[in-house]
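Hi all, long-time lurker, first post. I run a small reading group and we've been trying to get comfortable going from sequence to structure in the token notation. Rather than ask abstract questions, I figured I'd post a concrete chain and ask someone more experienced to write out its structure so we can walk through it together at our next meeting. Sequence below, copied exactly:
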Amino acid sequence: MGESRYGFFCECSVGKVINSQRKQPHKTLETMTLRFSYVWLLPLLEKPYDAVKLDLPAAIAALKIKSALPVDISLRQLLVTALESDSEYWSGLAIKWLDDGFPIDHNLSALLLQCASRKVLSQSARHKAFSLARRWEKLNRHPGRSMQVAYLKEALELQVLDVSDIVRWADEAISEQADPPYELIELALMSQSNRFDTARQLLRVATPSMSSAEVLPYVLAAAHQKLLEAPDFGKVLAEEMYRCWAKANGDFPEALRPFGYFDDAYALAESETFGTVDQIHRELLEFTAGFVSWVWPP
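-- Answer (accepted) --
Happy to help. Here is the structure in token form:
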């Protein structure tokens, strides 16, 4: 137990803060161990979750950590570190991130219940942790809903579905329950909302149990049918596919690699630099046709 040179009173084990308290809240946390530890990144929690999620590299750079960092930083693991820290300060900030929309899963829910029983935390923090854990349990009583949300979110972002489709799904889900969760009711009232807000609300209804790469083939099967019915949808789909590809930093399986191609191809065709719009449309139809045999899990 002692005061560290980066503004903490702390008790540490290798790679883990057992207890810590900020002495100077605005000072940057430096390294506590020679090997990388998520303890180094705890000050990220002092920023709003949406701001860090929007530009994680910039948020990390602002910490001015001199040691080498892993390529793949997991914000989920950062929250685990904070919730396991026995620190009211860091646990409280982690709980706030979860309350602000960071996706909760089974393990995070269990950690929240542990926090709810820790006397080191304030009564309000314990109540909030308990409330978040119970809310997650209520929302995830229906295992298939997490898969449905995974599909709906990706289909909405690619504009294969629109907001009215999501609202209709929410209405049907509500009709099947005697006591539907508030998040689902709120989703059903979003008919006038934009698709981005609607997608965020979907994540409050349930945490997707499938990754984008796992869901997208099924979405593309539906996109193929929409392309056949509305050829002008091709350019819209190409643009959204590019955004999806860019968000994933191009880290898609081989079958989905063309996600980054069609938007540029349409642009070159429209400027008469290379190819024609009809040609690109046929290529997009051919690409999406490769997924029509995919059957959505029961």
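A couple of things your group might point at:
DSSP finds 14 helices and three strands in the chain.
Residues 212-229 form the longest helix (18 residues).
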